[in-house]
Request: fold
Amino acid sequence: MDKTIFQKIIEKEIPSDIIFEDELCIVIKDINPQAPIHLLIIPKKPIPKLADASKDDLEILGHLMLIVGNMSRQFNVEDAFNVVINNGEKAGQTVFHLHIHLLAGNDKLNLPK
Ligand code: 5GP
Reply:
């Protein structure tokens, strides 16, 4: 299967605004932000979508959630942010490599388009 855009970003084949990286994940700024703060928390393991995750991915999934919290503190929005995971094309998923949207900075609900 062809590499997704996120796989290419993880492998540094294409540039991105990297906020954080560790052995399990990478955090980048969304190229088309839907809120003043719009980050993507992406596991390095190429799980296509949330529904494809298994028990083997428990550590990764938990880790991603903790990174969301860390990022919210780094950007001083820990009291008000939204987390979105689009699962499947009909739900608006466009990149088939699991990722969490962290949206913040508005005084209302932040949702990706
Ligand atoms: P999805 O619609 O799959 O939930 O979210 C994919 C997100 O990836 C979109 O918000 C889109 O703006 C973002 N995106 C797509 N291509 C790139 C890219 O090359 N770089 C960055 N930083 N974000 C991207």
Remarks:
- Helices lie at 5-10, 58-74.
- The chain has a mean pLDDT of 95.
- Strands lie at 18-21, 25-29, 37-43, 81-84, 100-104.
- The chain has one domain: 5-109.
